[in-house]
TrEMBL record:
Keyword Repressor: no
A GO biological process held by the record: bacterial-type flagellum-dependent swarming motility
Cellular location(s): Bacterial flagellum basal body
UniProt source species: Vagococcus hydrophili
The Flagellar basal-body/hook protein C-terminal domain, residue ranges: 188-230
SUPFAM superfamilies linked to this entry: Flagellar hook protein flgE
Protein name, as recorded: Flagellar hook-basal body protein
Length: 235
């Protein structure tokens, strides 16, 4: 009984992570450049079970078969496909058409990467992100917002799994990418999130049903354990 409660707890932990990911996707459905994420579930490997209740003296090994102790989150998968593009009337909005990412100078000196081209202008007339981080040009300098079509530094990655999310639409990478000369930048255009709201609502309802099933199983296990300790234990 204790083992069943432990297994159910692990299932509930997985469902909690799935729900958190779905909630994050729904909350950022209108965030420019946001990439949806999904918790990938994995079943633990089967474990061989045995005891020592075999033989005339009940002291020899008895094989009981195998048992799976539960599930776990294997990874958080990030869907890096492009979102939909929309035209805007703002001169400081930009979109990358292709695999490239804008380069962002982070406060700690590292370089960040983003598809969110909803830029602002700071007091030095430089293009910056919504958080105030400077956007870099091809020569690594800040970009003058008065330029008609700036020469952005764009970076692409052979394996986009190298990118690690830092917030809603900003990424960092341990392995530097390469200069992207194939992508193009469009002014007064933005890339939206790639969240599919129909899929997210379906996932949310499915997670809620699984929560209910596991809660019922947990209640049954708790009732059985209570009877075992309060009633059978008296015999």
């Amino acid at each position: 009984m204790i083992r069943s409660m432990y297994t159910l707890q692990r299932n509930l932990d997985v469902l909690q992570t799935k729900q958190e990911n779905t909630s994050a996707n729904v909350a950022n459905a209108n965030t420019y450049g946001y990439k949806s994420q999904q918790a990938i579930q994995k079943t633990d490997e089967e474990q061989k079970l045995h005891n020592y209740t075999n033989g005339p003296e009940l002291n020899k090994r008895r094989e009981l078969g195998s048992f799976v102790f539960g599930n776990k989150v294997d990874e958080i998968y990030k869907d890096m496909s492009s979102g939909s593009f929309k035209q805007t009337n703002k001169a400081t909005d930009y979109a990358v058409l292709g695999e490239g990412y804008f380069n962002v100078q982070l406060p700690n000196g590292d370089i960040g990467y983003t598809k969110n081209g909803h830029f602002q202008v700071n007091q030095q007339n430089q293009l910056v992100t919504q958080d105030g981080n400077v956007i870099l040009s091809k020569n690594g300098a800040p970009i003058d917002a008065r330029e008609n079509l700036p020469d952005f530094r764009l970076t692409r990655f052979t394996d986009q799994e190298d990118l690690t999310a830092q917030g809603e639409s900003l990424f960092v990478a341990e392995n530097p990418g390469m200069d992207d000369r194939a992508s193009t930048v469009r002014k007064s255009m933005l890339e939206g999130s790639n969240v599919n709201m129909v899929n997210e609502m379906t996932t949310l309802m499915d997670t809620a049903r699984q929560f209910e099933i596991n809660q019922k199983a947990l209640h049954t296990s708790d009732e059985t354990l209570r009877k075992l300790t309060n009633e059978v234990g008296r015999v």
